[in-house]
């Protein structure tokens, strides 16, 4: 087993860190306070190639393989202090561009991928509804065939990037089949289609520079060739891509974790109380020893998931473990960092309370911690409490 990364990969990470530290996140406090999207930062990401890292070169993307994409995103999360901006990038990439790359027809790919890669269009993913969160089988949004169109009706909640997005990957019920495996389909819907409206923009505690909204589809006519895959493929597409989303979306969070752990180490060495650095006190030192251990474990899990995906191997179990572990570790580490900084950690100006607020969301989006544990238990062969909705992979609910 080879744990080394190549000189080119190290160089890639260094370049991304330099870019992110010097050109992104400089106004993170402002965008957090205002709840505003950093369009200038977004354009700089497009210019640097971030928005096309995993997209094939023929569509203008960087054509990075999965492992290099993960390394680059880890570096982006480490270097960029605006976690909302990085979250917006992740949604754009994993919940829109990658869906198109993997499941779009040639014409959909040719039409949308260059726009997404060069930042001329912003992508979003509309799955959740008021009554269908963890349980996506309860989805009520419907699409009915009408000649060479589908007519979409429904309301999607909590759509990240929603208020600023131009392209939505939308999931809807296309048949009355009880089993979600056959009832759902996925569509590419653009903001300018008649009947698409942002009907709410949510104020939220963290990741405030990534706007989130409610999107309503009212008699929205979608050309039939805007379907991803074939009719009834929606659940399969969602499940297959969710494993990627869950795994890869957390690459940047491993970078955030490194930033938090390093900040803790600096504080432990520099802050003096009782005539010595606080890192000389055993409880502080042991907390930091544990934090470094968790960082190492998170990175190993991330690289293993990337390694599995790179070889087209199933990684449902490992992705659920990664999502669960990294999201909870980032949250716990951010809280410890606040404690380590005493009153300063609680001040807005130090940016640590923002890290805490940003970290809280990770245990909810892309499937809650409880649903990851449920999926892990099912994938390990334990009996399911979800009754008829269960399927062998444990993916019949959003996990
Ligand atoms: C920051 C953020 C960004 C998001 N971005 C998007 C997006 O871009 N697109 C999108 O479609 N959605 C998005 N979401 C929505 C997200 O996917 C859902 O919030 C999530 O799937 C949970 O659904 P819910 O909020 O309805 O909670 P519910 O499903 O109502 O769950 C409520 C609680 O009950 C628990 N629970 C539910 N069922 C079970 C069970 N079987 N066993 C044990 N516990 C259970 C849950 O774990 C949770 O603690 C986002 C959410 C957040 C916070």
UniProtKB/TrEMBL annotation:
It comes from the Bacteria. Its cofactor is FAD. Belongs to the acyl-CoA dehydrogenase family. Residues 6-119 form the Acyl-CoA dehydrogenase/oxidase N-terminal domain. One of its GO terms (molecular function) is flavin adenine dinucleotide binding. Residues 232-378 form the Acyl-CoA dehydrogenase/oxidase C-terminal domain. Keywords: FAD, Flavoprotein, Oxidoreductase. It holds the Pfam family Acyl-CoA_dh_N. Residues 124-220 form the Acyl-CoA oxidase/dehydrogenase middle domain. This is Acyl-CoA dehydrogenase family protein.
